[in-house]
Amino acid sequence: MSREVGSPVDGLVVALSEVPDPVFSQAMVGPGAAVTPRGGRQDALAPVAGTVSTLHPHAFVISTPEGTGILVHLGIDTVKLRGEGFALHVSEGDAVVAGQPVVSWDPGSVEQQGFSAVCPVVVLDVAPEALGDLREGSPVVAGDPLFALEA
């Protein structure tokens, strides 16, 4: 059985190795992909159905019913913005469906403040072999599949 993991934002899918942060580029937190988002205010969507297990303005984790965590990080070093420019639409512990808005943000504003807006989407606590069908190099609309997670 496999589960599709969707893109949280509109943009271009890039390899995780291209993310300008070694924690992500060296897959220290787990395998995945990243999306260079288009500019302009937009909603970051839940990549899978599950429960919001961690929620910060700049990052969130959705845990699947099987217990696998999917981390979405909105930009790099955006924790330094202290939530400015981010609006939460859910709370920790909420059940969400794939494609549900989780956080609103503006990637263009993030870049104007000197941060990368790239969005790593990482599967926590799995081996790289658990991912298949990565869509690297492809444009995506929020909700489009990024990769498949093999159960």
From TrEMBL:
Record-given protein name: PTS glucose transporter subunit IIA
Name the predominant localization. cytoplasm
Q: SUPFAM superfamilies this protein is in? A: Duplicated hybrid motif
GO molecular function terms noted in the UniProt entry = kinase activity
GO terms for biological process? phosphoenolpyruvate-dependent sugar phosphotransferase system
InterPro entries assigned to the protein according to its UniProt record, in alphabetical order: Dup_hybrid_motif, PTS_EIIA_1_perm, PTS_EIIA_component
PTS EIIA type-1 domain residues = 21-125
Question: Is Kinase there in the keyword field?
Answer: yes
Subcellular location(s) per record: Cytoplasm
Q: List the keywords (alphabetical).
A: Kinase, Phosphotransferase system, Sugar transport, Transferase, Transport
GO CC, sorted alphabetically, is:
cytoplasm
The UniProt record lists the keyword Transport: yes
What species does this protein belong to? Answer: Saccharopolyspora montiporae
